[in-house]
Amino acid sequence: MAAPNDNPLIRKLAYLHPLSDLERELLDKACSRIVRVGPDQDLINEGDRPTECNLLLEGMTCRYKILSEGKRQIFSFHVPGDIYDAQSFVMEVMDHSVATLTPCTIAVIPHTTMVTITEEHPRLARAVWKDTLVDASIFREWMASIGRRSAYQRLAHLMCEIHARLDAVGLATGGRIDWPITQSEIGDALGLSLVHVNRTLQELRGAGLITLKESKLVILDLPGLKTAGDFDPQYLHMKARRSISDRTGDASEPRER
Amino acid sequence: MAAPNDNPLIRKLAYLHPLSDLERELLDKACSRIVRVGPDQDLINEGDRPTECNLLLEGMTCRYKILSEGKRQIFSFHVPGDIYDAQSFVMEVMDHSVATLTPCTIAVIPHTTMVTITEEHPRLARAVWKDTLVDASIFREWMASIGRRSAYQRLAHLMCEIHARLDAVGLATGGRIDWPITQSEIGDALGLSLVHVNRTLQELRGAGLITLKESKLVILDLPGLKTAGDFDPQYLHMKARRSISDRTGDASEPRER
DNA sequence: CGGGGCGTTGACTGAGATCAATTATGGTGG
DNA sequence: CCACCATAATTGATCTCAGTCAACGCCCCG
Question: By CB neighbour count within 10 A (0-12 exposed, 13-18 middle, 19+ buried), where does A14 fall?
């Protein structure tokens, strides 16, 4: 966890916004404490007043809220490089919760450090701000999915998104990605019942677009899946055209898991 | 449009985040050019690369996206005091459009001004940042509505939200607010068909919760409507308990349309 | 080897969509 | 002041996608 380019946050922010060496170093130093957490653990709860931000280094988390009547809505899934609670740095009280889906490795950044860094380095503040705005853009796209797309489209769209985001941090091997999300969680994310998710998944399999078993999703036909999901990655605001896995000169050592 | 406290943005930001007199003055100066626009006009389109931000002073606007198949999803409605395109200052390309619902008065703030102000006044930057995060929180709540609430709950929830936000800038007279939103627009915001919106509105009327005609919404039973809509205003991150309309010293002239 | 989590399947139900008119309503021009 | 037109609201009939209920199988783990 030492060399700046190892840090997936830096990789991602640099992707959104150019960073100087000084800025990279600052960011890297900010991540002092590293924590490991098991699966299905709450990291933050609605109503909390956090004093630190968390950067996901490994694993997957989700944000959610429990409504009255016990229904759950999942707002987003998070991949390495995401500060899934950046908002806590600006807003006092959490209006939703965050939980792990898998075992996770998390870097902790005290708010005090965030304040110092962002007040002294406005460009860095903008980079983090931009990251929170990309979040908001993703929320909007999900809203559009839930509000106006069919179950089949929603599933396909979600898969394309997760694939694109994992690919951006080098965690997609071709169309193959980790998929630790249960059908019940997919349902709560997409506003569907678990039964209907199951049936829709089978449609996607039947159409030859995907394979999904043992928490591994293989996208057999990415263009087909994008079409099926009405997926246009513009809302993710990723600049580069080539996926990170294409770049050979980048010298971030390819690490196997 | 001269005296700082006339500016609904300053009123709202101060509401979120304490501001110094210097900061208030800076913000007020930033709003140089004032524009008037008619109803049902696009202000910004998906794909645009704006060079200025817009502060809504009067009227109501919405953000939306047209999906393939021509379906529309409305992401939010905006009331005076909202910088409905603050994100354009940080992200180059618009991923959605903005349109007026009513005739609007808008203050234009060049990005260059925004950059100067926010880089020199990090606290102001945080105030605007916070505003964009409240936006994101609202998106999440809408997502929860569309994904997990019934049509009846969604309608009630939306009405409570618009009421709360208008009240926060002094534009609610008791339970009475302007409601320039057509049933078709409600449908596109809440993921419902226009026909079903109509029927659900009649249920709300029948339950004695509201009255709605001639673009005026009267909430007859606010606690009842909140219960019906599962509405908890925490997600709006408003600090004050009292509504602005309670404050008598504020002297914002009651203006008829 | 028993139990809990996850996935799968079938049968039935229902909230909300769609289709198709019909009726206000609010301008607009004569 | 009134005819006219477009937009918005309303209503009825029908259909369908997705939810609910209820089993059952699989697999991992204690």
Answer: middle
User: From the Cβ of B184, is strand D under 7 Å away?
Assistant: yes
**d(CA A116, nearest CA chain B) in Å:** 11
d(CA B171, CA B246): 12
Task: State the nucleotide closest to B215 in CA–C1' terms.
Answer: D8
Exposed, middle or buried by CB within 10 Å (0-12, 13-18, 19+), for A218?
A: middle
| Span B168-206, pLDDT tens digits | 888 998 899 999 999 999 999 999 999 999 999 999 999
Report the C-alpha gap between B104 and B57 in whole angstroms.
7
C-alpha distance from residue A41 to each of A35, A48, A144, B151, B180 (Å): 13, 15, 29, 32, 44
Q: Letter for the amino acid at B36? A: R
DSSP label of A211: E
Tell which residue, B19, B20, B25, has the closest CA to residue B6: B25
Query: What gap in Å lies between CA A2 and CA B18, rounded to an integer?
Result: 39
Contact B73, B103 (CB under 8 A): no
Chain A residues with CB-CB distance to B149 below 8 A: 67
Cα–Cα distance measured from residue B81 to residue B168, given in angstroms and rounded to the nearest whole number = 10
What's the CA A156/C1' D13 distance, rounded, in angstroms? 34
A 10 A CB-CB count for B67 gives 18
Its pTM stands at: 0.89
Distance, CA of B102 to chain centre: 13
| pLDDT tens column, B43-82 | 999 999 999 999 998 999 999 999 988 999 999 999 998 9
Which of B65, B91, B142 faces A133 most closely, judged by CB atoms? B91
Minimal C-alpha gap between A165 and chain B (Å):
17
In angstroms, what CA-CA distances link A96 with A42, A228, B50?
11, 31, 32
C-alpha to C-alpha distance for B109 and B115, rounded to whole angstroms: 10
From the list B119, B136, B139, the residue facing A122 with the nearest CB is B119
Q: In the 132-191 stretch of chain A, whose C-beta falls under 7 Å of nucleic acid strand D?
A: 150-152, 187, 191
pLDDT tens for residues A92-147?
999 999 999 999 999 999 999 988 888 888 788 888 889 999 999 999 999 999 99
